[in-house]
Amino acid sequence: MKAFFVLATILLPVSLATMFFTTGAAAACSNVPSMKIEDACKACPGKSAYAACKETLRSAPDPAEVTTYVLMVARKAHLKYNSTMNTINLELGAGKGRRQEEKEAMVYCRDMHEKAYDLMASGAAHLSGCDFGLAEGKFSWALSTTGACLNIVRETAFPSSWMADLVKPGFDLTVVVETLAYLLIHAS
């Protein structure tokens, strides 16, 4: 019974997120530019964002409407935020002897990822409704929140890099989403 609860707890949010991000994928929007994956990913700043873009879009149609790319990366970022929040909650509950500063940074990052989770979903909904300006705004706020977490982690000087390793991939995905949303708006 416990295994069923754990499985249901994990699969239900993933299924709902997948359903949310794959329905109404902005297919009805007019004047949406198409790009090749390589061109879209080249626009991403830095090697880690470029790599996150290429990895996420490797199964995407090539070329495709930029909205398709944004929604694919947004879905992956959304799932990554959820995973990050769960990992932080597990670490906080493990009762390990952590400095107060580390605990505060972990709580802060969990809270920032919760905000980013909501912002990414809202941005995807606006994008699906062809409201590109509001979508870009939500994605920009998600980038600010994940970036704030990453800065706190770096400033806290965790004894190991586990926390930076945990939050950096979500930040990179958010950079990709925000970059592609920018391309969408300014190329339309």
TrEMBL record:
Q: Which SUPFAM superfamilies match?
A: Plant invertase/pectin methylesterase inhibitor
Q: PROSITE patterns recorded for this chain?
A: PROKAR_LIPOPROTEIN
**UniProt superkingdom:** Eukaryota
Which InterPro entries does this chain map to? Invertase/methylesterase_inhib (IPR035513)
Residues in the signal sequence: 1-27
Q: Keyword Secreted on this protein?
A: no
Keywords in UniProt for this one? Answer: Signal
For the keyword Signal, the answer is yes
- PANTHER family, alphabetically? OS08G0142100 PROTEIN, OS08G0142100 PROTEIN-RELATED
> What name is this protein filed under?
Uncharacterized protein
Organism name = Panicum miliaceum (Proso millet)
